[in-house]
Structure formats: C-alpha cells, structure tokens
C-alpha cells in the first residue's frame, strides 16, 4: 500500500512532463501508429487526473486528521471521543457533498445531542461522551445554553426519554464504566439548574446524581488525608450541606428529599468527627452556616422527620457544641427535650447527648447545671418516677457525671450534691 501511494504521488509530474514533451516516437507512416499521439495524450491525461485526485484525497485526509487532532487536544478528548469527532467530520463531509447547505446550524454539540437521541446504545454513549467532555472544559456560554436547549427544550417526550437514559447510566446497578457515569453525571448536573416540578425524570436523575456524589465523598472521607484535602477545597462543604441549608425537607417534601438530606447529614457528621485541626476547621464552617443549624434544630422538633434524620442532626449539633459559642442554647434545647414527656422520638437522643456532654465535664457540666429551670430536680423526678427504664438509666448517668465532673464549686453543684444525698436512699430501695 505504501509502495502504491508512493507511485501515485510520483506519477503526476511524470505524466505532465510527457504531455509537454510529446516524445512518443516517430510513426514513420506506419498506419498502426497513426493514432499513437492522440492515444498517448489521453492516457497520460487520465493518469495525471488520477494522480491529482489521489493527491487531493491524500491532502484532504491529512487535513482532516489534523483538524480532529486539534479539536481533541483543545477539549482533551480521549481516544473514544476522538473517534466520535472523526465520525462527525466524515458525516459532515458526506452530507455537504450531497447538499452544500447540510452544514448550516450543524456543530459538535448538535451532532452529540443527535447521537444521544438515537435508539442505538452505542450512539447514545458516543454523544454523552462528547457532551461530557465539552462540559468538563471551560465551555463558552453559548454552547452551554445550546446544550440545555437541545436536551430539555425539545418535546417533553423526547427530553424525558433522554433523561431516562441518563438515569439508567447513573443507576448504581448499571453495568456502565466509571468514565461513562462521569459524563452522564456532568450532563445531569448541567441541567439541574432548570429542574421544574413537572420534570419528574430530571428530578430523579438529579437525586441519583446527588446520592452517588455523597456516597463517593463519604467513602473518600474514611481517609484522614482526604478529609484534610476536603477541608481545604473551597466550596465543597457548602455543596455537601446544600440540601440541609435549603431545608428541602420542610420547604418541599419530606418523602421526596429525606434520603438526600440523610446522606448529607451523615457526611457532615463524619467530617465533623475528624481529629485535630482538620475537624475543628470543618466544625467551624458547619457552625457558621446558620441556615444549616436552623434546619437541624427544626428536624429535632419535627414529628414528620424520620428517626435517622433526627439521630444524625443530634449527633452533628452535639459535635458542634464541643467547641461552639452557641453551646449554651443547644444544651438548653437538649434539656427542654429530655424533660418533655411528649418528645418521644427525640427524648432518648437528647438524653444520650446530655450524658456525653456531662461526661466531658468542664464548661459543659457547668452550663447543664445552670440552665433555665430546675433541671436537677427534673432529673431526680425522672429517676424516681419515669415508667421507661431507659429514661431512668439516662437520668442517673447525667446526675453521676455532673457530680463527678462538675468543676465549678458553686451553689448549683452544692445543691446537686445535697439533693443526691437525699435521693440516694429512695433509689436504693426502689
């Protein structure tokens, strides 16, 4: 093949020279050579045209490869996406050969969306791969807008069909590889800002994307070094807390967003438990988000919020109270919950948090003793009269920790010790 290409590239100059020279020999009146000149002219002309056509095709192919390479380098396409670009160029060339207006309004974005609308799974993945790579780059605003218009601005049935495909790719049970899921995730994330209440498939795809992302972050957070990187990544924690900060549970719907909020809270709690300066930095950032704090407090007071949500919210707020200026307000809330017979769902969680804080001693024990209301008296009532054995055990733990770890020898601590001296005989003979 290489030899043939070399021969065809050498032929045009040779044929042109022979046509100019007309050196075909002398006919010498031979009747058999009478038409030699005309025949040789035609032969060399055909060979010349053939060589020129080959040279044109070779140049065109070479130029096409350079274009594909340049586009691939510009958008950092991999081998598979580069193949898709080459196919786009080839189809555009073939279409223009049939109709010069074929290229009007046609570009890589329209080509990719067209592939995604195909019934072929291979074409869909090729289109998703191109769009995913385009969105990964600093894509011009015009292209970003065009992608949204083409994907969700078309007919409802067509856009929903595309979103269903993307949702299947993002499904944790799907067989697609990580790269394909990343491309689908970028596309869904790009469309997320245009979610409307009737975009059922888009909303589900967005939720699936959030769940996948939170799951990945939680796994990464198992490593202390990763937590340190996360604490230094600007805006990451804010995005993790977005569903909590926005209070999607109470502003939109408990059932629809409980799983998302629960996963966000779990990641927040995990990050808040990091040791050393990393943990302190993350806890400061969480505690500085007043909207998130307000949402978690609301979760503890809400009868519609599931027990797991309340458990995670209580855990985070307890973590924050360890080094937060608002610990007094939080401890007061715990006391109010634990002494309220009607707070069945969260009463046990509040008791556990108070037991842990009182065990820490120091400022926490002092605040617990000084909260509004006769908390010690209420603890003694729970210890003696509560029908729930677990409540009595928790009250006993808190009283024991306060006696053992109370550091400020003031009137509150003295009163506690006096009351305990009086109540102990009753406890022994219960």
Compact overview of the structure:
With 430 residues, the protein is mostly helical.
Q: Could you characterize what this model shows?
A:
- The chain is mostly helical and 430 residues long.
- 77% of the residues lie in helices and 0% in strands.
- It has helices at residues 2-21, 36-75, 79-98, 108-116, 121-136, 141-152, 156-170, 178-191, 200-220, 224-232, 236-240, 242-245, 248-251, 254-272, 276-287, 290-301, 307-321, 327-338, 344-360, 362-370, 375-385, 389-405, 411-428.
- The longest helix is centred in the first third of the chain and has 40 residues, at 36-75.
- The protein starts with a helix and ends with a helix.
Assembly context of the chains: single chain
What are the segments in which pLDDT stays under 50 over at least 5 consecutive residues? 1-10
Strand tally: 0
Spatial gap, N to C terminus: 102 Å
* SSE run: HHHHHHHHHHHHHHHHHHHHHHH
Give the overall pLDDT as a whole number. 76
Radius of gyration: 37 Å
Q: Note the beta-strand portion.
A: under 5%
Helix content estimate? over 70%
Silhouette = elongated
Q: How many strands, what sense, and barrel or not for the largest sheet?
A: none
Structural class of the secondary structure composition?
mainly alpha
Per DSSP, the total helix count is 23
